[in-house]
Amino acid sequence: MDPRLRDLLVRGGGLVVRRDAIRVTPVWTIQAAWRAGRLVRLLPRVYGDAALIRDTTSDLPPLARVDPEVARRAVLAYADGRGALSGLSALDAWGLRQQPPGEPLYVDLPRGSGLRGRPHLVVRHRAGFAVEPPQVVVRGGLPVTRLDRTLVDCWSLLPPVDRLNPLIRAVNDRLTTPQRLVAALAEVPRTTDRAALCGLLDRLTAGCRSPLEIWGHDRVFTGPGMPAFTRQARVRVGARTIYLDMFAEAERVNVELDGAGTHADPAEREIDLRRDALLATVGILVVRFTHRRLVANPAEVRQETLAILAARRRLPMIR
């Protein structure tokens, strides 16, 4: 291979754009390296070192057979500064879901850019799109669509079973808020299963922070006799700040829903017991329901909760 072309590949992390190559070397050097099997065309005008191909026997397009990090850089080189990773590729960059092998990459571009989709690459053209804040941020050195828009866009791209987790994680990790997600959804009037997404955002706005809490909210802890629980209520106990899952303030009762994997570690169980004891020092009763019991006996859990709340109301200190 021409040493000048090799130098460009080294400086480009294994990638070279045709425009840059022909500035320092004749165009035939690219063609010769490609014919000799030393270069592979990943996208129009974007080439990679053939050594980057991980599976030489697969029928998948070359872009699907290089390391994901290399593939993302190749896509952005193809976009030539006009695009940002979006959809499932942006969700990967945000660390909320890893793209599996064979899944196409996504890039957003301004309408009228002239670039189109390729094998293993989905190009989406958006009116008024620009690779700058607030529409685009930099993650890991790469431009990606802002998180709230990314999550809304991915709702229709993910299978139903995988849709809730990225949204819930993003809110729990304080990467975004339900209000920002609602605003992003307003930007996308046509969304698959829009009613389901609106319902999820309503639950997140109400304070639900797990699929189990959403299930309990819909089937157990709302309706006749139930108070308006404050979810994720912030309580100060001495120097500590504690967040309560579902707090009935008048009755001073906090309902905690323990997930299926909760307390597998005895140390975690001890932490929760100490926390519950600390809350008791300020008159807050913690009532815990397991995942199994909540799902298997929702009516029983509901009646027990109502009985506990009624008993607390009869205590002189609660009146």
CATH architecture of the domain at 211-314: 3-Layer(aba) Sandwich
Per the CATH scheme, the topology name of the domain at 211-314 is Endonuclease, Chain A
Shape: elongated
CATH secondary-structure class of the domain at 211-314: Alpha Beta
What is the rounded Rg?
27 Å
Total of DSSP H or I helical runs spanning 4+ residues: 13
Helix content: 40-55%
Structural class: alpha+beta
Instruction: Identify the strand order in the major beta sheet.
Output: 9-10-11-12
The ordered string of helix (H) and strand (E) elements is: HEHHEEHEHEEEEHHHHHEEEHEHH
Averaging pLDDT over every residue, what do you get? Answer: 93
Describe this structure in words.
This protein has 319 residues and is of the alpha+beta class. Among the domains are: 1-52, Arc Repressor Mutant, subunit A (Orthogonal Bundle), CATH 1.10.10; 211-314, VSR Endonuclease (Endonuclease, Chain A, 3-Layer(aba) Sandwich), CATH 3.40.960. It has 13 helices and twelve strands. The strands form four sheets. Strands 9-10-11-12 form a four-stranded mixed beta sheet, sandwiched between helices. Strand 7 (136-139) and strand 8 (142-145) form a beta hairpin. The protein is elongated.
Looking at this protein, list some descriptive labels.
13 helices, 12 strands, 20% strand, Endonuclease, Chain A, four-stranded mixed β-sheet, three-stranded antiparallel β-sheet, single chain, Arc Repressor Mutant, subunit A, alpha+beta, 319 residues
